[in-house]
Amino acid sequence: MESFIEEVRGRLSTASRVTVLTGAGISADSGIPTFRGPEGLWKNFRAEDLATPEAFERDPKLVWEWYNWRRELIAAKEPNPAHRALVKIESGMEARQGRFRLLTQNVDGLHGRAGSRNVIELHGNIWKVRCTGCGTVTEDRRVPIPIPPHCASCGKMLRPHIVWFGESLDPRDMDRAVEALENCDVMLVIGTSGVVQPAATFASTARGAGAFVVEINPDASSSAAQIALRGRAAEIVPQLV
Ligand code: OAD
């Protein structure tokens, strides 16, 4: 393990372009539950009832109650050493005119709170709301949010600014993600099960374009990785700085 960590540290220190993909596992060390696995949210809740446009149409109150519960949970959590280590890697790359891109599937906003600058939130952000009428996206950090919340401009109902199952990613985010994957020397894949598309194919896209792909996860998840560092993100990522 130590020699693998050393190798990755060496590659990061000379890379001119680094792209990182994170999933719920990086925030698990902040105490936020992941989605899959024995303690995962999808063990106790049905995604079909809570995280689809149909579910929201059927029962917006239920969906908002679930998001209020998650807002309350996330509001009490802090970025952990893995989030902070990525900020250090980004600063180091900027200092030597390198490019650092962070693609996250997480909606908790912890990368931004830790200080990461170049973040693409592929699945949206739990602290943003979007109007179902006029489409305006605004930040709304109320916990709990009054149910149902309404748009200040047009009065229509607000929904969480989250990409639900059955919905597509913002095409601009997707373009930026593909560009970051096809143009990186090193890719770190941290704490994602790699089962949700399109992020599930990101590691192989980067590998196919010549990147050295490293997975950081206590369990095997990406077959595209050349090196797998098995362990918790908060323990491993700081060692890569
Ligand atoms: P998952 O819950 O599917 O996977 C979490 C991954 O984190 C698993 O591979 C775990 O082994 C790993 N893990 C657990 N603890 C860890 C730790 N301390 N350090 C590092 N890794 C750890 O979460 P995602 O892959 O992020 O979508 O799930 C993808 C999407 O599915 C989510 O963005 C969400 C969900 O439905 C939306 O909310 C739209």
Lay out the secondary structure.
Elements: H1 2-14, E1 17-22, H2 24-28, H3 41-44, H4 47-50, H5 53-58, H6 60-75, H7 81-95, E2 99-104, H8 110-114, E3 119-121, E4 124-131, E5 137-139, E6 158-162, H9 171-182, E7 186-190, H10 202-208, E8 212-216, E9 227-229, H11 233-236
Helix pairs in contact: 9-10
The structure holds 2'-O-acetyl adenosine-5-diphosphoribose.
User: Helical percent range?
Assistant: 25-40%
C-alpha termini separation: 16 Å
CATH topology of the largest domain: Rossmann fold
* Strand line-up across the major sheet: 3-2-1-7-8-9
Number of strands: 9
Q: Would you tell me the overall average pLDDT?
A: 96
Describe the structure.
By secondary structure, this protein is α/β, with parallel strands linked by helices. It folds into 2 domains: 149 residues, TPP-binding domain (Rossmann fold); 82 residues, SIR2/SIRT2 'Small Domain' (2-Layer Sandwich), CATH 3.30.1600.10. The chain has 11 helices and 9 strands. A 6-stranded parallel sheet has the order 3-2-1-7-8-9, with helices on both faces. A 3-stranded antiparallel sheet has the order 5-4-6, covered by helices on one side. α8 links the parallel β2 and β3. α9 packs across α10. The longest helix is centred in the N-terminal third of the chain and has 16 residues. The protein is globular and about 55 Å long. The relative contact order is 0.20. The structure holds 2'-O-acetyl adenosine-5-diphosphoribose. 2'-O-acetyl adenosine-5-diphosphoribose binds next to α2. The site of 2'-O-acetyl adenosine-5-diphosphoribose has 26 residues, from α2.
